[in-house]
């Protein structure tokens, strides 16, 4: 193994890039995110920085891989992160951390340990580097030494190098959770999750599938998927579910297959996934995981207390009984003219269809009508599709804010989608349109949108502005479906106010 590494002396830390697929931290989108996550790692990282400032860099190799005219750090990311921040405390995202590293930098300079260059070992092959890293990670030593990987981090590492550990499906779910702004504890028990999530049938029952490239995606609306995963993480972290033998009061052991089935059934029941036509949390709607049904379901017009009706028909009513419209005149039949998709959303060719997503805007709103019309023609152009979705959402929000005078006129044209959403939500809650406990599904959807627990808004930002994230057709469809019922409600309210 030694022969596959060559020493390179005095490499500038400016030429060293941090590993954005560091299994210790999850996968980050850029260098700033790596540093932010390293700082968030807490006391072990600060202990290492303090040790470097006082005693100098350890003799352990910094293992790097040639990457153009720079070198990607494959082993030693904590040490190089600490050196980067000691040399440039202004890179710290918050004032307290900047002050902390400024003091440590002074200590390092006094002790002759403020290094701008380091000796590195350059690996000759990916295989050699991977083998070295895997063998090297044992023992944390209070944060000063090498930090041992928890089982979840080991699974992350396997994924990062294109391999599959014993619980790779469960690990990919946790990466999905991290990407969608859900907190995944460092010592999360991936083995407990893997007990039921590695089975294909259970994955589908919990609202997820894997594509041919083994990428995970939700088959239920994004809001539903976020809530499901958040619950699973909380239940495992609290010990409510576990893999110990025997159950203590208030807990459930997943050692037994029947208990796993019981837990999954309970989640499906809580999220209404076991009810025909009730997959989408928005009353009367269907999202990414909705399936065609011969008996659409929905609420009685006006019964959800959420203003203009967005659904209709009694549960279990057949096609002949499903013609009734709510106060907003919305037909709830499936297929061509109704709100229930006739095909699974993942099979849609068009991102937006008039038949499945009927929206009415006044003729005076020519620009937003044109955007809506173009959305109905676009397919297989995901970047253009995502930009049009964003433009429609932004235009709808701006119109609602302006008509209801929710912001000062001078601020409206420069306000972000998220800022406008805050004012819109406040208006709808104060007006009794969104009421917790009555039609609370839509209330929760908007609540989570504002809190960024649901990722529609930040995801649009990433897809449009980040070079690392490119949308797929399914991303555009899911983003539109997430916003559709809320957009429809806003235009109905605007029509009522006109």
UniProtKB/TrEMBL annotation:
Source organism superkingdom: Bacteria
Entries under InterPro entries matching the protein: ParB/Sulfiredoxin_sf
Region annotated Disordered, chain positions: 278-348
Transmembrane segments: none
Comp. bias regions, Gly residues: 299-316, 326-337
UniProt-recorded name of the protein: ParB/Sulfiredoxin domain-containing protein
Source organism of the structure: Pseudomonas fildesensis
């Amino acid at each position: 193994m030694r022969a596959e590494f060559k020493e390179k002396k005095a490499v500038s830390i400016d030429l060293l890039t941090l590993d954005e697929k560091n299994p210790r931290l999850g996968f980050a989108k850029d260098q700033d995110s790596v540093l932010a996550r390293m700082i968030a790692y807490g006391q072990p990282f600060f202990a290492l920085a303090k040790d470097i400032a006082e005693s100098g860099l350890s003799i352990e190799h910094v293992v790097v891989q040639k990457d153009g005219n720079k070198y990607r750090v494959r082993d030693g990311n904590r040490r190089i992160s600490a050196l980067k921040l000691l040399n440039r405390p202004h890179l710290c995202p918050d004032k307290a951390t900047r002050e902390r590293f400024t003091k440590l930098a002074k200590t390092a300079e006094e002790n002759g340990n403020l290094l701008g260059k380091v000796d590195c070992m350059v690996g000759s092959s990916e295989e050699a580097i991977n083998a070295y890293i895997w063998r090297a990670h044992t023992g944390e030593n209070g944060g000063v030494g090498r930090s041992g990987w928890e089982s979840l981090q080991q699974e992350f590492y396997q994924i990062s190098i294109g391999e599959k550990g014993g619980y790779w499906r469960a690990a990919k779910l946790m990466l999905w959770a991290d990407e969608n702004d859900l907190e995944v504890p460092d010592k999360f028990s991936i083995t407990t999750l893997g007990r039921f999530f590695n089975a294909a049938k259970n994955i589908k029952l919990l609202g997820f599938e894997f594509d041919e490239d083994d990428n995970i995606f939700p088959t239920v609306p994004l809001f539903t998927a976020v809530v499901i995963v958040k619950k699973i993480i909380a239940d495992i972290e609290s010990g409510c579910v576990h893999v110990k033998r025997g159950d203590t009061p208030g807990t459930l052991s997943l050692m037994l297959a029947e208990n796993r089935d019981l837990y999954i059934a309970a989640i499906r029941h809580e999220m209404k996934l076991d009810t025909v036509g009730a997959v989408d949390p928005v009353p009367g709607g269907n999202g990414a995981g909705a399936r065609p049904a011969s008996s659409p379901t929905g609420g009685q017009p006006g019964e959800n207390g959420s203003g203009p009706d967005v659904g209709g028909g009694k549960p279990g009513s057949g096609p002949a009984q499903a013609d009734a419209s709510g106060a907003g005149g919305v037909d709830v039949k499936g297929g061509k003219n109704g709100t229930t998709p006739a095909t699974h959303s993942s099979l849609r060719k068009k991102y937006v269809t008039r038949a499945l997503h009927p929206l009415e805007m006044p003729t005076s709103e020519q620009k937003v009508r044109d955007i809506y019309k173009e959305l109905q023609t676009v397919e297989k152009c995901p970047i253009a599709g995502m930009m049009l979705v964003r433009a429609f959402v932004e235009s709808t929000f701006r119109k609602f804010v302006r008509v209801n005078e929710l912001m000062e006129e001078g601020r409206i044209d420069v306000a972000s989608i998220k800022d406008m959403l805050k004012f819109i939500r406040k208006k709808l809650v104060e007006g009794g349109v969104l009421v917790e406990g009555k039609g609370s599904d839509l209330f929760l959807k908007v609540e989570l949108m504002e809190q960024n627990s649901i990722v529609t808004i930040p995801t649009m930002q990433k897809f449009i502005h980040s070079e690392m994230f490119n949308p797929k057709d399914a991303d555009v469809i899911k983003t539109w479906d997430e916003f559709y019922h809320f957009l429809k409600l806003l235009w109905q309210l605007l029509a009522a106010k006109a």
